[in-house]
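In response to the reviewer comment on reproducibility (Comment 2.3), we provide here a single inverse folding case reported in full, input and output, so that an independent group could reproduce the run without further information from us. The structure tokens appear first.
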């Protein structure tokens, strides 16, 4: 099982992630981890903190001489802004004499849309900072670091992952647009919003600019595409083994994600079956082990909770960020009187960043599914099992062809 745990607060000393289940013998490319962390910090509409932080993952365990050794991998991402928060975010009862940073007042006005109020009630905290620091999307930097290693593992199964943004506010790609893996992968890491249509991307930028001027925020949608996914990952025999369900849960766990779709997603409910289900055609001599082809991929690479050999396509819709520069009405929890919601340093739009986190979560789920299907305590053992599986599938379907 490939799984991970994270720890740390938004303005604490560091984020920590422990990733386990990665087989031994995987060469770990530190530069690839850094590149994914940098992409997460980019995108038009990000706030001032992205100019402060320059995320770097330091590997603390589980890797020796550049290769995984089979044990848990621990990584640390230091918060550079910690120097300004040492007094407020100290772990000791009394602040050390040399603790830097402002003496910040307790946060008592929860923000609508954030975990502030629900978390304060759940954990019995009077200072909402105890909630918002952990509920912050800053935690997703740790996920991206873990996902970068998972991505390197699934490359050995022939899987590659990319993403693109298809909507910001009311600006979106035309209905029915299908973006290929190659189109999304060709987008520059420095593209402002990673949209495949430059004209639509400019409309998206305009939406963000108007929101910024109004003290408001914008949400949107993105799609993660995984290509080269072997047939047969996941299972339909129990509810919690269905791979589409596992992917949906992983995506919904990303802060501010309010809906997830596989393939056509919600649109499938409005179409007749003849325009939803992907026909199966013989394709002898093709590059698929099954010897069949699908003229469409409305199912998003999953049928019955099992991968069918097509690209896995997962979409997610992100709500606008909860911190508004012109705050909504709230209640001061110390007096229970009406007051403007608290303002925390935040972004106007973070959909491109969420797409990078989405890639990481898809990589982690697929890494778990690959090791579940093929096993192996080492990468070499895993590769042999994958090669044998592909040969078995080809033999099974080749025997049926005339």
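Designed residues, in position order:
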């Amino acid at each position: 099982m490939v799984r991970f745990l994270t720890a740390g607060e938004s303005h604490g000393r560091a984020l920590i992630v422990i990733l386990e289940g990665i087989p031994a013998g995987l060469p770990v490319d530190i530069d690839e981890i850094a590149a994914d962390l940098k992409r997460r910090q980019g995108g038009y509409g990000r706030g001032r903190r992205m100019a402060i932080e320059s995320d770097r993952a330091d590997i603390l365990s589980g890797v020796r001489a550049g290769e995984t050794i089979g044990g848990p991998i621990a990584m640390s991402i230091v918060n550079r802004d910690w120097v300004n928060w040492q007094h407020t975010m100290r772990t000791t009862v009394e602040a050390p004499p040399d603790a830097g940073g402002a003496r910040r007042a307790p946060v008592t006005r929860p923000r609508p849309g954030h975990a502030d109020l629900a978390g304060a009630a759940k954990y019995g905290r009077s200072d909402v900072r105890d909630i918002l620091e952990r509920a912050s999307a800053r935690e997703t930097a740790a996920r991206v670091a873990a996902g970068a290693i998972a991505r390197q593992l699934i490359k050995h199964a022939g899987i590659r992952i990319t993403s693109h943004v298809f909507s910001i506010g009311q600006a979106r790609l035309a209905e029915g647009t299908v973006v290929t893996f190659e189109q999304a992968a060709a987008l520059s890491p420095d593209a402002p919003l990673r949209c495949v249509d430059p004209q639509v991307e400019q409309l998206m930028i305009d939406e963000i600019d108007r929101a910024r001027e109004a003290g408001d925020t914008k949400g949107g949608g993105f799609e993660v595409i995984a290509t080269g996914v072997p047939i047969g990952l996941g299972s339909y025999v129990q509810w919690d083994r269905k791979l589409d369900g596992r992917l949906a849960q992983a995506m919904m766990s990303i802060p501010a994600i309010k809906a997830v779709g596989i393939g056509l997603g919600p649109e499938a409910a409005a179409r007749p079956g003849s325009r939803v289900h992907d026909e199966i055609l013989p394709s002898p001599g093709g590059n698929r082990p099954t010897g069949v082809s699908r003229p469409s991929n409305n199912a998003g690479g999953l049928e019955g909770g099992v991968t069918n050999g097509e690209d896995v396509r997962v979409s997610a819709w992100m709500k606008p960020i909860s911190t508004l520069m012109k705050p909504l009405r709230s209640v001061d929890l110390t007096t229970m009187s009406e007051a403007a919601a608290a303002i925390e340093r935040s972004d106007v739009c973070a959909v491109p960043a969420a797409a990078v986190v989405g890639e990481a979560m898809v990589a982690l789920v697929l890494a778990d599914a690959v090791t579940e299907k093929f096993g192996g305590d080492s990468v070499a053992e895993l590769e042999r099992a994958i090669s044998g599986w592909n040969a078995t599938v080809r033999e099974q379907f080749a025997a049926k062809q005339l």
